[in-house]
Amino acid sequence: MSYLKELGKPDDVVNEKDFVVKNNKLSPFDYISSICYDKTDIMQDEKDESQYSAFMINRGLGFGSDTVIAANEMNSRPHLDNKIQYDFLKAVIRKGKRYNKWIKAEEENLTMVKEYFGYSFNKAKDALKILTDDDLSKIKDFMKKSKGGLL
């Protein structure tokens, strides 16, 4: 007994010759992995070259102590083609896994200060420079009480 017969006939029959595999869009992390660890050339055609974001890749490489100089060299030469920048970074940077942390803004404190004082984004950033940790903890306690403990 076949379970497929119970499902009925298929709606569409796909011809194997017409079947095309879609290529996924490459992310900056794919390029960084290729530059640092895989050392495989993932930039095969012009479509891959257009997906290369030199700023994001140089930023990601700028967080590593052994890759910051190469990334800075490419930042100082933005007129070069993406393929040339990619090939240079792939050739210069040694192979190895890198677990660099990306710097993130303290969004929790920023949104808390914005809500507490009614400040804009820029004013809240300036206020965070002035406020101490004790001030931030008092603001956080106040916001917890006023919001019902949601923070």
Sum up the structure in keywords.
151 residues, mainly alpha, 9 helices, 56% helix
- End-to-end CA span: 58 Å
Number of strands: 0
Biggest beta sheet summary: none
Total domain count: 2
Helix content: 55-70%
Structural class: mainly alpha
CA gyration radius, whole angstroms: 25 Å
Question: pLDDT under 50 segments (min length 5)?
Answer: none
Quaternary status: single chain
The count of helical stretches stands at: 9
Element-by-element helix/strand order: HHHHHHHHH
Mean pLDDT value: 85
Q: Strand content of the residues, in percent?
A: under 5%
Explain the overall architecture:
By secondary structure, the chain is an all-alpha fold. It folds into two domains: 28-92, no CATH class; 107-147. The protein has helices at 3-7, 28-38, 46-51, 54-61, 68-75, 82-92, 107-117, 121-130, 133-147. The mean pLDDT is 85.
